[in-house]
Amino acid sequence: MEMKLGMMIDLDKCIACQACTIACKAENNVAEGIQWNRVMAVMDPASKYPNVKVELYPRPCMHCERPPCLPVCPVSAIYKRADGIVMQDYDKCIGCRRCMAACPYGARGFNYEEPFKGKGYEGKPNYLNPDPAVAPRQANKVEKCTFCFQRVDQGKQPACIGACPSVARFFGDLEDPNSDVAKQIKRRKAEPLNPEKGTVPTVFYAPRG
Amino acid sequence: MGVQELVGKKMKRRTFLKVAGATGVTVAAASTLTGCTVEVSENTARGGYRPKDEKWVATACLGCVGWCAKKVRVVDGRAVEITGNPESKVTGGSICPRAHLGLQILYDPDRIKGPMKRTNPVKGKGVDPGWVPITWEEAYNTVVGKLKALRDKGEPHKLMLLRGRYTKPDELLTYSTFPKSYGTPHTYTHSALCDEGTKVAEWMGDGRFNYSGYDLARTNYLLCFGLSPAEANRPTARLQRLWGVMRQEKDKRTKIVVIDPRMSVSAAKADEWLPVNPGTDGALALAMAHVILVNGLWNKDFVGDFTSGGRFIAGATVDEASFVEKNTLGLVKWWNLVLKDFTPAVAEKETGIPADTIIRIAKEFATNGPAIAWRARGSTAWPGGAYSGYAIFSLNALVGSLDVPGGVMYDSSIKVADDVPLVQDDIAKAGASKPRLDARKTKKFPYASVVTNYVATAIVNDPGTPIEVCIGWHNNFVFSAPNTERWYKAMAKIPFTVHITNFISEFTEMADIIMPVPTYLEKWGWDAPTAGAGFGQIQLRQPVVKKMFDTYSTADITFELARRLGGSIAESFKGMGDNAEGYTKFKLGSLMPWEELKQKGVIVGSDYKFNTGTRFATPSKKYEFFSGNLKAEYDKLKMTDEDHKALGFAGLGELKYLPHYERPRFLGESGKYPLVLISYKLALNKEGRSQNTPWYQELAQVMYNEGYTNFAEINPATAAKYGIKDGDMVIVESDYGKIQVKAKVFEGIHPDVVAMAFGQGHRLYGRWAKNKGANPNDITGEDYEPLSGMAAYFNTRVRVYKA
């Protein structure tokens, strides 16, 4: 059976600390202003002091089985790997941002300017990950979470998994019922965000409680 | 730690999916999908990068007093990734989010690259010091010249040392051996800007003057009074790791309740948020104790019981002879003098928390053990905060949660090699015995170990020049202490100040000489984490990359100053390795072979042994609801009720020694200033040392999906009352000044408060830190929790209006 990579984020364990966000930025050389793995605070609109409900969702790319970003790209810069990772070919990307409009999760970011230039930076920072697979992008390119394909290809987990201090994230092969992630999804009855959008995400969220 | 199956647990499907769709996440046209098929592309990018020169170096963080062990990946001599160290039992291999910021601190372009001196003799806030680079030789000559001159006139006690963040070598050498051998009593840490009220609270009950450690992995019920353990308590990585364990990695899911006037991230992620009226946490704890006793829910094995079936009945006095206590002392006295009338209805009036909620929480707490009542600065950095903390901590004793699995723990440590004996000449002896400026352990601050914020007041009020030379390191008291203006005045009055620092901060602006240090990723040392784990652990700090600039660590500077001062001072530092690296080897060398230690980075002590009832350092050797420790100190100081009243306390007589309620006092007229300013700390605050990192700025305020500023956070009803809309620039004004900042209107804020994150509002510190948001300490008044000397941070009244 083909491998299908996926993730589960346990909202009961997650503490919205943004370790995933920062570890991702460090691993993937993500420019200031873009977060591939953003923690989003969402208040229940019925909230009224003192009964207030806020949920905080870490939001990577959902690596949808039917990615809405893919068919709208006029230059075929978006493709899906055999293992399910939705990729972005930066050489082809013309920065039209149709994919951003098509993504119901707001998972994509746009480099309005050249990364790490101006804004106080004196050249590319020394701490950048030297892996050429994550070389900083150029201006006018769209980018997003890749499940850290460069790590996955070396048999490692994405950076956000190991960085999560409360061990709220699980990653692996959804088709393998013995994988951590598959077992956790089953145990925690995890579901994707906004399933009604029909994109069939491979990122699942376990509810509170 | 393995994840355990939750057997038979009914999963309640929440509406979270819908909520996200409705308000948070961009919703785009999904129709584009109809009928589309996705083809797998052959054009597949592959990762196969293998750097030639790559290593992982074990070292320690400096983002909080966890000093967590971590590993840094170094490629071609550059640090590019930080992860946890699996050898660390304290963290279980985790690191917290702020650990990653170390990369941006190490390579921060605003770091000071070599020693400098001031050329502008005029000192003041906003006055350009006119820094010019100098050599280390000139820096040492100047500083040693000043230090020698003081000793030559027999006035070594005019030297003052101010300690901010530290690591073990500077704690032992710079803060202890150096001032003692030199001859000054004036050593002041930042501890009383941190959380001293919390320490004195436990000390009153069980004699341990420290933060408490908790066995969170086994607790079933957690009450957090004025703290946000998911964000800002320490050791951060450990607490964040254990949050995950509490929720889904143990048989019974831990219920978490957060008591805070502001909805913190912890409160948002907790099971219940109780937005208490500011400063009334003690009333809530006392009413809980009342409920526990009235309902017979105290732990009889630990506390004891009535001899012949008595009961605690609200309003009714109990005969002390009718109750026999086992491991505690003073329960009936506490009941008779405080608790019997402290009903949930009384507490509702004080706290704003409904009486039925108080009753329910108290019963849950007492019947879902092991349970923990956790206190921190949110509930204790108040004028009556020591008593609030004492009441909160005593809840643990009532339900038998002291020194049992799932309860409070008592830390142990690993013994390192002793220093060489201290040598003091007559000048040093005379100087070191002079009185301190901060009035610690006097009638003013009866059980303070340091009163940081009072140091500035003492210097300003002194008609003379009590301090002629000041050396501060990794501190920024003109920014981090309440009522900052006084600190500028005090520092302007000190003729000569040295700042040992990475960055030009607001404190540096008041200095004469800058001695720059390497960052914590470039230096030697070791640390032991703060309370929390029970067992001892040591974490080695070693340079992960070559030192980048012309810098020396605080310990290196201290060794050099001692050498140059000579005599008994130099004698006190001889034979201990001569520099930070040598000293680290000297102290740890016998514990583990050096090369092995450099590889592992961690030494783990033996497992914690729970040992109920044997660790209490009180006169009775029991847990005391009537504090014999405080009484002994008061007797020693000859503290009278009048003296106690002069500290602002209302509870006199025996109440002084009992956990009781002191109504919060506020600075400023409620008519003029209807709101209360409270401040808090964010997960990405490296305790005030991360504001010049782009990652901090971009992501700081996660609850609001915003960065690059902090906010004046107010409730929508409050905002409407004062005509303020979300995002408006507003003025927050108190009797002590005014600041301008962006408003955030949020349902999760108590209507009587303005909440502000601490950390922003720098004028200096670097290109990314400066001119962002505002510093709440600029408009906070000077007040104290008098028993511990802790600065009161949350009792300043303010008004808010559109700028």
Report what the structure shows.
The complex is a heterodimer of chains A (209) and B (803). With 209 residues, chain A is an alpha+beta fold. Chain A is 18% helix and 18% strand. Chain A is built from 6 helices and 9 strands; from the N terminus they run βαββαββαββααβαβ. Chain A has helices at 19-28, 69-72, 98-102, 149-152, 159-163, 180-188, and strands spanning 5-10, 38-43, 54-59, 78-80, 86-88, 109-110, 142-143, 169-173, 203-206. The two termini of chain A are 34 Å apart. The longest helix of chain B is centred in the first third of the chain and has 17 residues, at 136-152. Chain B is globular, with a radius of gyration of 27 Å. By secondary structure, chain B is of the alpha/beta class. In chain B, a hairpin with a 2-residue loop joins β2 and β3. In chain B, the strands form 9 sheets. In chain B, strands 5-4-19-18-17-6-7 form a 7-stranded mixed β-sheet, with helices on one face. A 6-stranded mixed β-sheet of chain B has the order 25-27-26-31-24-28. In chain B, strands 11-10-9-15 form a 4-stranded parallel β-sheet. At the A-B interface, α1, β2, β3, α2 and α4 of A face α1, β3, α2, α6 and α7 of B.
Write the layout of secondary structure elements.
The complex is a heterodimer of chains A (209) and B (803).
Chain A: E1 5-10, H1 19-28, E2 38-43, E3 54-59, H2 69-72, E4 78-80, E5 86-88, H3 98-102, E6 109-110, E7 142-143, H4 149-152, H5 159-163, E8 169-173, H6 180-188, E9 203-206
Parallel strand pairs in A: 1-9
Antiparallel strand pairs in A: 1-8, 2-3, 4-5, 6-7
Chain B: H1 16-24, E1 54-60, E2 69-75, E3 78-84, H2 102-106, E4 116-117, E5 132-133, H3 136-152, E6 159-163, H4 168-182, E7 187-189, H5 196-206, E8 213-214, E9 221-225, H6 236-248, E10 255-259, H7 265-269, E11 272-274, H8 281-294, H9 300-303, E12 304-306, E13 323-325, E14 328-329, H10 331-337, H11 344-351, H12 355-367, E15 371-375, H13 377-380, H14 385-398, E16 408-409, H15 426-432, H16 452-461, E17 469-473, H17 477-480, H18 484-493, E18 496-501, E19 513-516, E20 525-527, E21 537-541, H19 554-565, H20 567-571, H21 580-588, H22 594-600, E22 602-604, E23 623-624, H23 628-637, H24 641-646, E24 675-680, H25 694-699, E25 711-714, H26 716-721, E26 729-734, E27 737-745, E28 753-757, E29 784-785, E30 790-791, E31 796-802
Parallel strand pairs in B: 6-7, 6-17, 9-10, 9-15, 10-11, 14-23, 17-18, 18-19, 24-28, 25-27
Antiparallel strand pairs in B: 1-2, 2-3, 4-5, 4-19, 8-16, 12-13, 20-21, 21-22, 24-31, 26-27, 26-31, 29-30
Helix pairs in contact in B: 3-19, 4-15, 4-19, 5-14, 8-11, 8-12, 8-14, 11-12, 16-18
